[in-house]
């Protein structure tokens, strides 16, 4: 069951209407709402898929992200990766980041050389997505990038680096993560604390 159970009984036409209408709650929840609607539309077959592709030209970023995310879940479809690749250079950071996450979801590791340079992008959303991508496919390349990202000026990147270092069980990151317990942003402090707990547990298991 999703966050919006009222969507469960709706047919395709009604779902498309929801996607084109204003979100039922405050704007800050719009991204999650449209994503759930888009996922349900995508499950309605080819007509739903074509509708979502048309929505990629929608001026609203939340709707574009939702459509792209839902379409990226079609991992067996031959046009999914091609579609995602076209959005890597999108001028909207959140959309480009969604494309990177979609390529990761589709296990398209061949995009590595296109995505590595994005780690130096000005948008923390794109940097974070690029770090997640590299971490998923190349631990050796990811570890130094993640350790360096712990010093990034944007908290979103530092938070992502903590999470990925934990996922990769990078024990040598413990001293740097301890330093981040006093970070200026509470999300980073929490991410560092969780990562430390996971890494110390992994360290004991390996010992």
Task: Give structural notes.
The protein has a domain at 1-74. It has helices at residues 12-20, 30-42, 46-55, 61-72, 80-86, 93-105, 112-115, 124-137, 139-149, 155-167, 174-179, 186-206. The chain is globular and about 55 Å long. It starts with 11 loop residues before the first helix and ends with a helix. It has twelve helices and no strands. Helix 10 (155-167) packs parallel to helix 12 (186-206). The model has no long low-confidence stretch (mean pLDDT 95). By secondary structure, the protein is mostly helical. 36% of the residues are buried.
N-to-C series of helices and strands: HHHHHHHHHHHH
The number of E-state strands comes to: 0
Which structural category fits the helices and strands? mainly alpha
Provide the β-strand percentage band.
under 5%
Radius of gyration computed on alpha carbons = 19 Å
Q: How much helicity do the residues have?
A: 55-70%
- Structure annotation, total helices: 12
Low-confidence stretches: none
Rounded mean pLDDT score: 95
**Any idea what the shape is?**
globular
Instruction: Tell me the span between the first and last alpha carbons.
Output: 41 Å
Reported for the largest beta sheet, the result is: none
């Amino acid at each position: 069951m999703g966050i919006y159970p009222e969507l469960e009984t709706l047919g395709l036409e009604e779902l498309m209407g929801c996607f084109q209408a204003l979100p039922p709650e405050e704007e800050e929840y719009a991204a999650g709402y449209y994503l759930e609607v888009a996922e349900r539309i995508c499950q309605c077959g080819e007509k739903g898929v074509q509708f979502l592709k048309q929505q990629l030209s929608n001026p609203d970023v939340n709707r574009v992200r939702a459509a792209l995310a839902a379409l990226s879940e079609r991992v067996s479809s031959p046009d999914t990766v091609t579609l995602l690749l076209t959005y890597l250079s999108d001028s909207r950071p959140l959309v480009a980041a969604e494309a990177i996450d979609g390529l990761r979801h589709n296990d398209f590791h061949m995009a590595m050389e296109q995505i590595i340079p994005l780690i130096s992008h000005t948008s923390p959303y794109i940097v974070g997505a690029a770090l997640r991508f590299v971490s998923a496919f190349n631990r050796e390349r990811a570890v130094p990038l993640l350790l360096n990202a712990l010093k990034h000026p944007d908290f979103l990147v530092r938070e992502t680096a903590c999470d990925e270092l934990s996922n990769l069980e990078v024990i040598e990151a413990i001293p740097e993560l301890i330093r981040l317990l006093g970070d200026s942003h509470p999300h980073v402090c929490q991410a560092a604390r969780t990562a430390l707990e996971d890494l110390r547990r992994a360290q004991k298991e390996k010992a």
